[in-house]
Design a protein that fits this description.
This protein is an alpha/beta fold. It is built from 6 helices and 8 strands, in the order βααβββαβαββαβα. It starts with 8 loop residues before the first strand and ends with a helix. It has a 6-stranded parallel β-sheet with strand order 2-1-5-6-7-8, with helices on both faces.
């Protein structure tokens, strides 16, 4: 795909766990400014409300949102999610895939996906589905920020073959929510992934060095 009507690339953005489209949009203002004229960022809500309270003593790190949503739950009974939980079953992924497919149909055409944290893990799964020829997700590339491989047993099939979707993986050296190593593990599932390392934690970086890397990655898809 190419830029739409001269208005730049169109990226569908998937928020993290306990966030929403609105809160993620608010938290990526610097990124929108950095990509102005090059890419338009579109935001979509996860279909599942997160009602479970935060575990005692857990740092908020942006998790206390008024409208908390999630893409799937690693503990279906408790309605909670942990990126570290090796769940034998999970709940909610299929509904989330349907909601993303609906966003493609209603907001498309979409050139690329941008995901953060659990949303980045979902981007990885969608890339695997695209690799297999799933027609619901017509896009060209992915930007994966603080991503990780889902530990849920039912999801392991998505990582069984290399994913050839062009990808940029952004990881924070001091991220205490999703470690840099977890992000590297997801990146290793892709063919020739581009990696952007920053010194910060669990957020979407958009300072000058990251802006340059984003633009260089996106330039190859602008025609």
């Amino acid at each position: 795909m190419s830029a739409r009507g001269g208005g730049g690339l169109r990226l569908l953005c998937l928020h993290g766990y306990r966030q929403s489209a609105d809160t993620f949009r608010a938290r990526t203002g610097s990124l929108r400014k950095a990509l102005r004229g090059r890419a338009e960022l579109l935001y979509v809500d996860a279909p599942h409300s997160v009602d479970a309270p935060l575990p005692s003593g857990e740092a908020a790190s942006g998790a206390l949102e008024a409208d908390s949503k999630g893409w799937w739950f690693s503990d279906p009974q408790e309605g909670t999610f942990s990126a570290l939980e090796e769940a034998s079953s999970c709940k909610g992924l299929e509904e989330s895939l349907d909601s993303i497919a609906k966003a493609f149909a209603e907001q498309g055409p979409i050139d690329g996906l941008l995901g953060f944290s659990q949303g980045a893990a979902l981007v990885g799964i969608i890339c695997a589905l695209k690799q297999r020829g799933d027609p619901r997700f017509p896009f060209d590339f992915a930007i994966v920020v603080a991503g990780f491989k889902s530990q849920a047993t039912p999801h392991q099939r998505y990582y069984q073959e290399p994913i050839a979707v062009p990808s940029l993986h952004v990881l924070g050296e001091t991220d205490r929510v999703i470690s840099a190593e977890m992000s590297r593990q997801l990146a290793s599932c892709f063919v020739e992934p581009v990696t952007l390392i920053h010194t910060g934690g669990h957020f979407v970086p958009a300072s000058a060095p990251q802006k340059k890397a984003y633009l260089e990655f996106l330039d190859q898809f602008v025609k």
